Amino acid sequence: MSSPPAGAPSGLTWVKSSYSTADGPECVEIATAVDAVHVRDSKSVPGPQLGFTPGAWTDFVAYASER
User: Fold this and answer.
1) What is the pLDDT of residues 4-43, one digit of tens each?
2) Three-class SS of residue 58?
3) Burial class (CB in 10 A: 0-12, 13-18, 19+), 10
4) Which of 11, 18, 42, 46 is the most buried (most CB within 10 A)?
5) Helix (H), strand (E) at residue 54
6) Which pTM does this prediction carry?
7) CA 65, CA 22: separation in Å to the nearest integer?
8) Which of 17, 12, 19 is nearest to 51 (CA)?
């Protein structure tokens, strides 16, 4: 079993985009916490993660959905 990256919160529930297929290897996963939204690459679960404040995540999703 691999450990999460140093400083990464444990006990998060990760979900894939509804646009991802069940067997597709190229997926972004997110996990929400009270004060942050965490993002990781499903191909590299033990690898680095990004953390956003809820407001920054909302802004990012709004921006990306317009592209």
Assistant:
1) 555 556 789 999 877 777 676 678 899 999 999 999 988 8
2) helix
3) exposed
4) 42
5) helix 54-65
6) 0.73
7) 22
8) 12
